[in-house]
Amino acid sequence: MTGDDRTPVLVGVAQATERDARSEPAPEPIAMLERVARDAGEDAGAGSHLLRSLDTIGIVNVLGWRAPNPAAFLAERMGAKPTRTILTGTGGESPLVLLAHAAAEIEAGRSRAALLAGCNTLRTALRARRAGRRLGWATGPESPPFALSGHKGGSSELENLYGLSSPPVVYPLFENALRARRGLSLEAHCRAMGRLMSRMSAV
């Protein structure tokens, strides 16, 4: 790669899972974001030096956490001074929209190093709400981020009319349409999906 090469390259990744964390004491969203960011820096082999050199930090909208600018909050925690902080809207496609945007900015020469992150705290927040507890999670600075894509509902009025408002209801329709197009019996389709998912689970 030459010094003028603007090909986007993924240099580090990390993931943390607290699937059944109790609401007290559940890890705060900002702590989870910082943890995976630092782990990604280590995975890249550059550690905190890479994180401090970031010019862009983008966060996928975190359901259950009302932070005005989580990207700026994360930057503060890491000692980074990015020129751009980004927050996506809601929607299942928002991580890909953020990735495509960051890649286009790098290719255009407007960005050299970007961190993209997100966390899902909705289950913990709902559990705390049912128990009548306030989580009191820190929300960070009030400075507005660059808003990437708007907020929109997960389903249309027509879909809601027929109860098609949640993934466990909608995904089986996709599965059966795929099965019918391939002319597979239910048993054969289940075997094929099992083979596919077993390889993904191994990874």
Care to give the gist of this entry?
The chain is α/β, with parallel strands linked by helices and 203 residues long. The chain is 45% helix and 8% strand.
Characteristics:
203 residues; alpha/beta; 8 helices; 45% helix
Helix content: 40-55%
Secondary structure tally: strands: 4
Give the DSSP E fraction (strand runs of 2 or more residues): 5-15%
Largest sheet, in brief, is: 4 strands, parallel
Which strand order do you get reading across the main beta sheet?
Answer: 3-1-2-4
Ranges where pLDDT stays below 50 over 5 or more residues in a row are none
Quaternary form:
single chain
Instruction: Estimate the global geometry from the Cα principal axes.
Output: globular
